[in-house]
Specification:
- The protein is mainly α.
- The protein has a domain of 46 residues.
- It contains 2 helices and no strands.
- The chain is elongated, with a radius of gyration of 28 Å.
- The N and C termini lie far apart (89 Å).
Length: 69
């Protein structure tokens, strides 16, 4: 016969473990200083601007040529 466990205690232990995992993830995600957040935002804006600069423009007239018979 197996060990007898208290289900209420097991649920609470599991809930604590999940809460700690969520807290750890939140510390990684949101636990940054103001200067780190500003640096990340500046880098993202810079990368976005560089990407926009390298985008090719497609003229609207290229697809308007129709054949008339």
């Amino acid at each position: 016969m197996g060990d007898i466990i208290n289900l209420r205690r097991a649920r609470k232990t599991q809930a604590r473990k999940e809460a700690e995992q969520r807290a750890q993830q939140n510390r990684l995600t949101f636990g940054r200083s103001k200067s780190e957040k500003a640096l990340t935002k500046a880098r993202a804006e810079h990368d976005s601007a560089r990407l926009d600069q390298h985008q090719r423009e497609i003229s609207d007239n290229a697809g308007d040529e129709t054949q008339h018979s």
